[in-house]
Amino acid sequence: MTKTLARSLMLAPLIGVSDTLPKALSFWVLSVLIGALYGLGMHGLRNRLGEHMRLMASLLIAATLVSCMQLLLQAFALPLYQQLGIYLALTSVQCVLLEYSGFFEPGQGKARVQLFGLFGVLLITLGVIRGLVGDGSVTTLAPTGFILLGLLLAGRQAWVHFSKPH
What we know:
By secondary structure, the protein is an all-alpha fold. The chain has eight helices and no strands. The protein has one domain (1-162). The longest helix is centred in the middle third of the chain and has 26 residues, at 51-76. It is a multi-pass membrane protein.
């Protein structure tokens, strides 16, 4: 349940920030940076804290990292901060959910690279497709993002299906 929930939380930013390539790429870089810093911060605490204190530390570290990132963006990249809106704050919730699904535990490096890599590929692909048509068009709306994401996933499944020897 937790792994499904953790992955489903990535859907909102995937659709919400992929209307332009710069916005999608910026969000991906920031989410990877926050995730990496979160993993480093929890690494030393994970085994030393009880379950309740681990949750408190997890929430505190994730919220602090995102708040610091938001303050930096407000100071040095205000337009980007305004464009990313609430989606950057969702990164803290994402970190906590991934923590409790075992995502940041030792030996999960390959899973981390795969998840953040796939997330980046989808963000960039949707950003390119939605940005090609132009600003102010129907492609910047969220329903179009869902449709494009569905088409990309269907295309991937078709590719896998037809590339297998029959």
